[in-house]
Amino acid sequence: MSQEAVLARINVMKPLLGEEEAKALADVVASGWVAQGPKVKEFETLFAAGQSVRHAVATSSCTTALHLALVVAGIGPGDDVLVPSLSFIATANAVTYVGARPVFCDVDPATGNVTAETIHAALTLDTRAVIVVDQGGVPLDLDPIRELCDRHEITVIEDAACAVGSTYKGKPVGTRADIAVWSFHPRKILTTGEGGMLTTNRADWAARVRTLREHSMSVSATDRHGSVLAPPEVYLEVGFNYRMTDLQAAVGIVQLGRLPEILQRRRDIASRYVAGLAGLRGLRLVSDPPYGTTNYQSFWIEVLPSFATSREGLMEKLADAGISARRGIMAAHRQPAYRWRDGGNASLQHTQRLNDRTLILPVFHDLSDEGLGRIISTIRAAAT
């Protein structure tokens, strides 16, 4: 690759961070309170309101939020938890943290999400919970899943790591699940560097998560540090250090205010991809499902056998043009950590096809028209 191409590299993503976030961080530093404190509480309140839920609890990551969701749902050894294999490996890992068995289920070939049908095919006599994922920000069809799981008394946990700003039947995703978890990793459209959130309408679960994330102390760190004479604390059960800092929360508050602008820009970029790649034989593009809207956290394409080159070949051509793309969502059951585990007997044919054929294209707020044009031109050239 030439030096010019290196300098003009287009990354697959880039977080939107600026002067407002820098000022928010400086204000927290000046306050002297940088650990979990008033900014975390403010971030939780704003996030809960934005997601139309009663309770939001900030954590150190989405993975730790998912771990706590399973703990408060009472999942443990001897229990089966249905999960999509087509997801980042943390979805399955959290199940193993509590000693339960992740049972893999297949996905819808169009959306990449689990469905009531794929869940039903993977059910076991020991199924106690299902983790459903809004993959790449594409909302899943949750109502039929809730109907199935409620009938079998199965807890529904929604891994909405990628889905802030996505909607299901006109409402934010996550509102119909028993618990939902969210990510603020730099690859997500809202970021706090690292960080996560758990949302639920159950006050008892939210209260227990707040305690568990702070080593299960009976007195919160905020209350202890805010008191001249700190009250004695009691450790109610074995807990965790899964706290978010006020530094992270301050950035998150600014990012929440940017969300409408971020969503519109990402949808504009997606529209440009759709228009620019129209008519190319052998490509299938991600799109809104009929029951909701995606935030386009990822814009993925499926490279079909009828395309002029393979997915790997297309990635090489993009790389030669200084464009960074990524292979599509991983399949956890193919990873060494899970390859030899008993992960269920459901067919995973759609999972394997999407794992083999999908490609994630660059989408970020500052992606220029010139950059978009270069990506589209490179793909169109590869199609001939």
Q: How is the secondary structure organized here?
A:
Blueprint: H1 3-7, H2 19-31, H3 38-50, E1 55-59, H4 62-72, E2 80-84, H5 90-97, E3 101-105, H6 116-122, E4 127-133, H7 142-151, E5 155-159, E6 167-168, E7 171-172, E8 179-183, E9 196-200, H8 203-212, H9 221-225, H10 246-276, E10 283-285, E11 292-293, E12 299-303, H11 311-320, E13 326-327, H12 336-339, H13 349-357, E14 358-361, H14 369-382
Parallel strand pairs: 2-3, 2-4, 4-5, 5-8
Antiparallel strand pairs: 1-9, 6-7, 6-11, 8-9, 10-12, 12-14, 13-14
In short:
The chain contains 14 helices and 14 strands.
Q: What would you note in describing this structure?
A:
The structure is a single chain. With 384 residues, the chain is α/β, with parallel strands linked by helices. The chain has two domains: 3-13 and 259-382, Aspartate Aminotransferase, domain 1, CATH 3.90.1150.10; 19-257, Aspartate Aminotransferase, domain 2. The protein is built from 14 helices and 14 strands. It has helices at 3-7, 19-31, 38-50, 62-72, 90-97, 116-122, 142-151, 203-212, 221-225, 246-276, 311-320, 336-339, 349-357, 369-382; strands spanning 55-59, 80-84, 101-105, 127-133, 155-159, 167-168, 171-172, 179-183, 196-200, 283-285, 292-293, 299-303, 326-327, 358-361. The strands form three sheets. A seven-stranded mixed β-sheet has the order 1-9-8-5-4-2-3, sandwiched between helices. A four-stranded antiparallel β-sheet has the order 10-12-14-13. A hairpin with a 2-residue loop joins strand 6 (167-168) and strand 7 (171-172). Helix 6 runs parallel beside helix 7 (142-151). The model has no long low-confidence stretch (mean pLDDT 94).
